[in-house]
Design a protein that fits this description.
The protein has one domain: Hypothetical protein af1432, CATH 1.10.3210. It is about 60% helix and about 0% strand. Helix 5 packs across helix 9, helix 6 packs parallel to helix 15 and helix 9 packs across helix 14. The longest helix is centred in the last third of the chain and has 31 residues. The radius of gyration is 22 Å and the shape is globular. Bound molecules: magnesium ion (MG).
Length: about 375
């Protein structure tokens, strides 16, 4: 059904006709010309939660530049990197595309600051906020597009990938996730998403960090010797070029180096483990998709640098405090006055309790929407 993609699939990839991977909660007849994962991709792409990614902060709000990434453009960058990796490793490209498109769908407004406030607020009720679990609730319950069932009725492989791509959950703590093989490794298609995400955001955050003026180019190069060497090489080749272009070239080369390293290391890992089937992938003691030790060390170093220079930059503190104020106040307001929630959220509160329903309501909002809600509820815009 999927033409040459199917014929080139590695024996350890998720097959297009795998009965378990393609199973849906509500059985549906096969589509005449789209395979199950292409259908899931289209369902994600047409979801309201997917469109809202355009209005959600990745690292920055838009006060710095209109060119900085939103969650939507980040998602599209992850998708293209992940598809390249899947194609070269002969993995299931349609499954990978779907998982990449859906991977950040559970993120609340205001980036990671937003996620932390929701988690803190829920802690008073012995609950927590986790964007992967929220993403699963979105695709299983909140998206309503079909007359016959709630949610998007996605295949098991996609739901498993949503849960397991970036972290391992313990069955004892999450009995509700029993159908997702928590005692086993995820398929390579899901493992791929985590590192495609890393490649996309490390390169993009350095780029956006410098574009915004929060990260200084000279300082970044002083902390990241591999990039400094590449930048010096570019300077030598193009002595008259503008520093921004030299930086673009440096970041582009680095992105290619990350992808090359991931492909080579993963191939070595697959060969060394003697993996021949998806069952073999699942039974491995560790994930097989990985960077080499040298590249992993550079990845960590870059992450540490960005954490200090960008994510914890004092210039972003006002925005973080604003996020805490807005989300915290609205959460407390709606928990105290659940009768003022929209009807759909009141119904959800009956099933999952008021605090969870309020957190799910807030997590779905875009940055602009929650600011309007805050103005409606409090009559003020908060901090200016
Ligand atoms: Mg991401």
């Amino acid at each position: 059904m999927s033409g040459n993609r199917e014929s080139q699939l590695a024996p350890f990839a998720v097959a297009y006709d795998d009965v378990i991977a393609t199973s849906r909660i509500h059985e549906e007849p096969p589509h005449p010309y789209r395979n199950p994962f292409q259908r899931d991709r289209d369902r994600v792409l047409h979801a309201r939660a997917f469109r809202r990614l355009a209005g959600k902060t990745q690292v920055f709000t838009r006060r710095y530049s209109d060119h900085l990434r939103s969650r939507l453009t980040h998602t599209l960058e992850v998708t293209q990197i992940a598809r390249t990796l899947a194609a070269v490793l002969n993995l299931n490209e349609d499954l990978v595309e779907t998982l990449a498109l859906v991977h950040d769908i559970g993120h609340p407004p205001f980036g990671h600051a937003g996620e932390r406030v929701l988690d803190d607020q829920l802690m008073q009720f012995s609950l927590g906020f986790d964007h992967n679990l929220h993403a699963l609730r979105i695709v299983e319950h909140f998206e309503q597009r079909y007359a016959a069932f709630r949610g998007l009725n996605l295949t098991l492989a996609v739901r498993e990938g949503i849960i397991k791509h970036s972290r391992d959950y313990k069955l004892a703590e999450h009995p509700e996730l029993t159908e997702y093989f928590l005692d086993q490794q995820p398929p390579l298609e899901a493992q791929l998403i985590d590192l495609a995400d890393e490649i996309a955001y490390l390169t993009a955050d350095l780029d956006d960090g410098i574009e915004s003026g929060l990260v200084n180019l000279g300082d970044a190069l002083a902390h990241l010797p591999t990039l400094a060497a590449s930048y010096a090489e570019m300077q030598h080749e193009h002595p008259a070029a503008w520093s921004r272009l030299l930086l673009n070239e440096t970041i582009k080369r680095w992105l290619n180096a990350l992808v090359d390293d991931l492909v080579a290391t993963t191939r070595r890992n697959i060969a060394a483990a003697g993996v021949a089937t998806l069952t073999d992938v699942r039974r491995q003691p560790a994930r097989l998709i990985a960077f080499s030790p040298d590249m992993e060390a550079m990845r960590r170093r870059t992450k540490q640098y960005l954490s200090q220079a960008l994510y914890n930059n004092p210039e972003l503190e006002t925005e973080k405090q604003h996020a805490i104020l807005v989300i915290g106040s609205l959460f407390q307001h709606w928990v105290a006055h659940p009768e003022t929630l929209p009807r759909h959220q009141r119904e959800l509160a009956e099933a999952s309790g008021v605090p969870r329903a309020v957190a799910d309501y807030i997590a779905g909002m875009t940055d602009d929407y929650i600011l309007r809600a805050y103005l409606d509820v409090t009559g003020t815009a908060g901090m200016s």
